[in-house]
Amino acid sequence: MPNEPAEPRPKQGLLVLVVEDEFLTAIDLQSMLEDVGYAVLGPVGTVDDALRILDETRPDVVSLDLNLRGQSSIPVAEKLRELEVPFIVTSAYRTFDFPGGEILTGVTAIGKPVHPRMLIEALSQACGS
């Protein structure tokens, strides 16, 4: 039996990890991504779950909320930089002026509510495609 990948990958499109703690927003993001043929990992709503996924799988790109149940997602951003996985921020926060926020320098941020076209364009640009 041939080795199968741990996570199914789309024949076309990207494998996107969605890190979002608000259930309805997470489902909405997942739907937007799947509508254009992207595969979605998650959504996951905690820093620990996001880091666990990143230890197991390498997504093509990540959509990252900055505040996960009151916890900063900066540790996830640091791990993404370490792994050289591109990411965007989807957040209601308008500034990255907080401890550790410098890790987000140069990262595209999309405000909430997220518009599908903006999401897809930002993810594509983050990946260089």
From TrEMBL:
4-aspartylphosphate modification, residue list: 65
A single GO BP: phosphorelay signal transduction system
Keywords (A to Z) from UniProt: Phosphoprotein
Sequence ranges assigned to domain Response regulatory in this UniProt record: 15-127
Stored Pfam families: Response_reg
Entry-linked SUPFAM superfamilies: CheY-like
Name this protein carries in UniProt: Response regulator receiver domain protein
Organism expressing this protein natively: Cereibacter sphaeroides (strain ATCC 17023 / DSM 158 / JCM 6121 / CCUG 31486 / LMG 2827 / NBRC 12203 / NCIMB 8253 / ATH 2.4.1.) (Rhodobacter sphaeroides)
